[in-house]
């Protein structure tokens, strides 16, 4: 583990390039989804997390762990998605205070329409620019960050 003063120029360059690349790619993905589907990237992410979940449902706490939003931001987003009939909330039988967020048929249709736009962007702006061996190496390198955080590296976004 390095202290901040111990980082080499190359390590700082790698960090800055990682941040720039992430910001640029997410801005482009967001712009494409908004322009073509009128769907913000954060909304798309919530729909993806739900479609990949068992029974297409997650407790709010589980959903919060999987998306890059604060809990209050997620609550507001789920409220908006519910108003658009893309998700619904259901009570948890085993916990009277618990709520599930459930993907609706309308939400699934919206996700299916938006997925080609998102995947085209992921290919065009990011991993499609890499040779297969480079993609394998990048996944392994980034996986080390995620492994250290104790996250599930098998989930795709």
Offer a few descriptive terms:
three-stranded antiparallel beta sheet; 3 strands; 157 residues; 6 helices; single chain; globular; disordered C terminus; mainly alpha
Account of the protein in words:
- Strand 2 (87-92) and strand 3 (95-103) form a beta hairpin.
- This protein has helices at residues 9-37, 41-51, 60-66, 71-83, 105-125, 132-148; strands spanning 57-59, 87-92, 95-103.
- It is 62% helix and 11% strand.
- The chain starts with 8 loop residues before the first helix and ends in a 9-residue tail after the last helix.
- The chain has a three-stranded antiparallel β-sheet.
- Helix 1 crosses helix 5 and helix 2 packs across helix 5 (105-125).
- By secondary structure, the chain is mainly α.
Q: So what's the overall shape?
A: globular
Number of helices: 6
- SSE ordering: HHEHHEEHH
Lateral arrangement of strands in the main beta sheet? 1-3-2
Topology:
Elements: H1 9-37, H2 41-51, E1 57-59, H3 60-66, H4 71-83, E2 87-92, E3 95-103, H5 105-125, H6 132-148
Antiparallel strand pairs: 1-3, 2-3
Please give a quick description of this structure:
The protein is mainly alpha-helical. Helix content is 62%, strand content 11%. The protein has a three-stranded antiparallel sheet with strand order 1-3-2.
